[in-house]
Amino acid sequence: MLGPVILAASRSDKMRRFVSAAPGTKQVVARFIAGETVNDVVPIVQELAARGLEVTLDVVGEDITTVEQSYAARDAYLELIGRLRELGLGARAEMSVKLSMFGQSLENGHELALANVRPVVAAAAEIGTTVTLDAEDHTTLDSMFAIHEELRKDFPQTGCVIQAYLFRTEDDARRLAANGSRVRIVKGAYKEPASVAIQDKPEIDKAYVRIMKILMEGEGYPMIGSHDPRLISVGQELARRAGRKLDEYEFQMLYGIRTEEQNRLAAEGHRMRVYTAYGTDWYGYFMRRLAEKPANLLFFVRSILTKG
Known about the structure:
Layout: H1 2-9, H2 13-21, H3 25-32, H4 38-50, E1 54-59, H5 67-87, E2 93-97, H6 109-126, E3 131-133, H7 141-152, E4 159-163, H8 169-178, E5 182-186, H9 201-216, E6 221-225, H10 229-241, E7 250-254, H11 259-267, E8 271-278, H12 283-292, H13 294-307
Parallel strand pairs: 1-2, 1-8, 2-3, 3-4, 4-5, 5-6, 6-7, 7-8
Helix pairs in contact: 1-12, 5-6, 6-7, 8-9, 9-10, 12-13
């Protein structure tokens, strides 16, 4: 079971230094990270939009330690929104944010994160798009859901993420489906204890299907975050049974993964959104992508060996 080992390494400063210095790292990181700056990512948004794809943009970074860093995260998203406004891309690109970047774990972190994310959500609404609050480890979720509920009072299109491997998620899905939320469902990419999360992959897949059914039959807007062909097929069937039109749900996949499938779904008329991350603090995000799929890790190891 390499996944838990890699997830543990995502929190290690020693491993961060090793991975950052490895000869093949830059090549592999470029597969998952669209660049380091707004100027790097804008052409990619334009190219994806030209292919009929939509985008959700994530300025990578987490585990901040100062209030000043939380303000910098807020300002990075405001800069991004400003560029999208200039280029008229607001209708094609939303934002995903991790509240840890906005100060959630600091003293008075709940209030600080809400204060920081609110102007980002407001600025996104002004250019015709929205923000989705990413799910992080289970200890942060009550705060995230409370902030989501507060933001929806003024910005009802604000979305949130739920993770299929957590025992609590079916109840969360029922609540969110009933109140008409935009909800992205993912399997989950944090190392969680057996007391709060399913550990067996087949059982996680079964939970994912149950939660998709809840969302499809509810009043909200489901966003199916998966690269698994079986789950995508099941999602299509559940949407059909629920009588949903193609614009009443969407699929989401990571930048750099299953590009042909992204194009195929878009060509069939599905809303297909590409989760596109950029920024200099890429390590934690990158390590979770390796943990999610052994093929990603093998690709990384081969790159190191051939470049060393």
